[in-house]
Amino acid sequence: MNAWNYTRVHEFILMGLTSRQDVQIALFVIFLICYLASLVGNILIISISRISPHLHTPMYLFLSNLSFLDIWFTSSIVPKMLINFLSVKKSISFDGCFAQLFMHMGLGGAECCILLAMAYDRYVAICSPLHYTTIMHPVLCIKMASGSWIGGLANSLIHTVFALQLPFCGPNTINHFFCEVPTVVELACTDVSLNKTVIFLCAIFVVMLPFFLILITYGYIISSILKISTSLGRKKAFSTCASHIIVVTLFYGTIIFMYMRPGDSHVANQDKMATLFYSVVTPMLNPFIYTLRNQDVKAAVLGIIRKKVV
Question: What integer best gives the mean pLDDT of the chain?
């Protein structure tokens, strides 16, 4: 019999981060500020990259894609979370829950792939600088960016389709602040070992494989940097990778902690904190990480300001 024929759950209850009303009000203010900062920062990155001609390079094409991803990645979670902070009944519809699940998995998977594309860009820039413009052709860059989105969509479709085959007939309380795949799957009133296997296998291909390729890429990058004769040259080469290394560490550190552990080792509060970090905090920090030490972006901003003043 098809699972849809006996699905009884029409909505899910999200337990959120805390049940204390005074703390929820404080969290509402904190995450509203974080969300607005994330939107403003990432929109500025996209706008500056499009307006400034000297930023029309592969690196900023990928960075714009990352910013666009981060806008929707955090938007798939935070608005509903903010509403629930102020609501008595913290519910989400069945369809809304799976839409949230679909967006979160798709955008998260695409971000893993975009970070790999950015690592390859840095590899070519440092290891083959004379052939950079030939190798990082606009067509290749567009294919890499498109492939990242397609990979994320495929990952999301797999998780969503498998989860929708499960019968949800109660309970309907999710011990989380949004509908994340592992927590939703746990509510099914049937054996979910296949779904857990799918989650683990997808994590290997979508999370771990790009991560290991990034590590290999940086192995070659570091080897090339160490061969540079001057300390100033080594410092300059490393500075072009520093922002990306920080972002990769923040994003992958928490997402690996979340998805690459055995199912029976998950602790609700730890999972919430890990998800909160890579889904909300990291998208807010990325624009600052990429702009604070980036002279090209600073120069572009100053150029735009001068034009406005004149």
Answer: 86
Rg of the chain (C-alpha set): 21
Token output for 186: 């746990």
* pTM of the predicted structure, to 2 decimals: 0.88
The H helix count followed by the E strand count for the chain is: 13, 3
Spatial neighbors of 308 by CB under 8 A, at least 6 apart, are none
Residue 129 makes CB contacts below 8 A (sequence gap 6+) with: none
pLDDT tens-digit readout, 72-106: 999 999 999 999 998 888 889 999 999 999 999 99
Instruction: Give me the mean pLDDT over the 114-141 stretch.
Output: 93
Q: Are 100 and 76 in contact (CB under 8 A)?
A: yes
Contact between residue 45 and residue 63 where contact means Cβ atoms under 8 Å apart: yes
Enter the tokens of residue 83: 């509403």
CA separation, residue 142 to residues 93, 118, 149, 193, 198 (Å): 36, 12, 11, 38, 29
Q: How confident is the model at residue 310 (pLDDT cuts 50, 70, 90)?
A: low
How far apart CA 188 and CA 173 sit, in angstroms, is 11
The encoded tokens of residue 245 equal 């290394």
Q: Report all structural domains of the chain as residue ranges with CATH numbers, in order of start.
A: 3-309 (1.20.1070.10)
H or E stretch at 14: strand 11-14
